[in-house]
């Protein structure tokens, strides 16, 4: 070897790093496969929720019954209020003034006054009720017919019912004062005040039912939150294992959401049964009471739409409660490596 020859350095052999092999390539999964997997997991989650509710029947029944009682109270009051509103509908348009004449006014003069008053502003029509007609009507409605027949004379005065063309309070008061100043008029009574008071009570009842519905809906959500929280704690180890093998929060959350919806939906169905049973139980006495007032109305049950809306609304509350419980407590369960 020549002295000046430069030594040949051994070249380092380049070693390539092994490529990281992906465990599962989502690109190879078609959209149809993903949808089938998603649908199968939803089906399995719903079946698992029903099985767990069936496995703990006593506690599940108590939770469902609490939800049903909480929802049946405002629902029943709302149905009764709807019946009251239907019975009184149109009464305000039947506003009239009862004008009682002096006892010595004859029937002929009573007819003349009724025709004269038609010329007064804001009077649409008049109706004459003679003393004899008033007595017969009072005997039929009061039940004191034998007592009235024993009296030596008819104690009821002649009456003219005046129907105004407006229900404005100012107009009615002005008309009442004008008729009270007419000759041979003894008393003028405005027979619409009690109807207005009734409508004010109905409006107050609507607001009370709305407030009660919000309060009890919040109570239903809290009941479901507590129930789902206990379920999460009892399945802590199972959730830990699922997360270790790569289960996502959505995968873990789904069965609990179906459980909350099932609680709420079942509670809504039981609430419908309770309300319908209560209306059936109250129907007889209420119909008898209405018949005493010569009313053809009858107590109606829940509307067909309410029979569907109630379970769905309750199921939505259960779903909301489950979502809140899972969002609050599921993040606290994380595997420690």
Automatic annotation (TrEMBL):
The keyword Cell cycle applies. Coiled coil: none annotated. It is found in: Cell inner membrane. GO terms for biological process: cell division. InterPro entries: ABC3_permease_C (IPR003838), FtsX (IPR004513), FtsX_ECD (IPR040690), FtsX_proteobact-type (IPR047590). The chain crosses the membrane at residues 61-81, 208-228, 261-282, 302-326. Residues 1-28 are annotated as: Disordered. GO terms for cellular component: cell division site; plasma membrane. It is a multi-pass membrane protein. Its main location: membrane. Keywords: Cell cycle, Cell division, Cell inner membrane, Cell membrane, Membrane, Transmembrane, Transmembrane helix. Residues 213-326 form the ABC3 transporter permease C-terminal domain. Residues 97-188 form the FtsX extracellular domain. It comes from the Bacteria. Part of the ABC transporter FtsEX involved in cellular division. PANTHER family: CELL DIVISION PROTEIN FTSX. Belongs to the ABC-4 integral membrane protein family. FtsX subfamily. Forms a membrane-associated complex with FtsE. This is Cell division protein FtsX. It comes from Alcanivorax nanhaiticus.
